[in-house]
Design brief:
By secondary structure, this protein is α/β, with parallel strands linked by helices. It has helices spanning 70-74, 77-89, 113-122, 142-152, 177-180, and strands spanning 4-5, 15-17, 33-36, 42-47, 51-57, 62-68, 97-100, 110-112, 130-132, 137-140, 160-162, 186-190.
Length: 194
Amino acid sequence: MDRLVTVNQVHGDAIVKVDEQNCTSMRLEQADGLITNARGIAIGIETADCVPILLLDPVTPAIGAVHAGWRSTVLKIVQKAIIRMRSEFGSDPSRMIAAIGPSIGPECYEVDGPVMGPVQANFLFWNEATVPRGRDKWGLDLVKLNRRELAQSGLAEKNIHSLGMCTSCRKDLFYSFRAEGRTGRMLSVLMIKP
């Protein structure tokens, strides 16, 4: 696929708009989300435990790809991607579809105070996405946090789809940085047909 666009992911909240003019120079852009309404340009994000979220507005049409680790989730990157799609392309969140790919599950993703502090500060419903694990430790469900953000951004629950598989539990199928250390990456891609 010679028109596959990825970016230099930095665990932030920057969203870049991809078009015919800039699609060949995006690899060095520091961002964690891509949006486009250009036909025939595939956009993708790489993950190995973080949450990959693909967005589709089938009416406009327009698409988005979001890399949501804990930092990007706390920065509300998926919400910002939807806002950008609305402002750039006129996308209506009520008609959008979201696909959430494989990521680390709360059973394997144990975090401590430096992560939980920002989670608690940014999500009123944080206790619905965590499981206490003793002194200053929690199991964190990044998928649940992002699902809630998608719904609060206007997506219908029936249009939010999640694979529901933990990358750390299923090292036989997926890459997991937490389980394996230095490892490969999975690529989540979508494209509007030419």
